[in-house]
Amino acid sequence: MTKTYITRQGETVDLACWKHYGRTAEVTEAVLEANAGLADLGAILPMGTVIMMPVFESKKTARSLVGLWE
Q1: What gap in Å lies between CA 64 and CA 41, rounded to an integer?
Q2: What is the pLDDT of residue 61?
Q3: Considering the domain boundaries, does residue 45 fall inside one?
């Protein structure tokens, strides 16, 4: 199920992805593919642009711990 995102003044596709997904890696390209003509609007999107945000599985990454005194 896709959700919609409506841009605010001065937003880019990257910023919309960051606000919606909490990341830009691996999702920005998919959002551009899912929204034909979105890239043609320019780097800064017009206010009120409706973007279809595809659903992605949440990506859980294990952080490696660094031992300072080991």
Answers
A1: 40
A2: 59
A3: yes
Inside any domain, residue 70: no
The terminus-to-terminus CA distance of the chain in angstroms comes to 47
Q: What is the pLDDT of residues 6-28, one digit of tens each?
A: 999 999 999 999 999 999 988 99
Does 41 map to a domain? yes
Which residue do the tokens 């390209």 mark? Answer: 29
Q: Which domain holds residue 39?
A: 3-53
Q: What per-residue confidence (pLDDT) applies to 70?
A: 62
* Per-residue tokens: 5: 């995102």
The number of folded domains in the chain is: 1
Q: Which helix (H) or strand (E) holds 69?
A: none
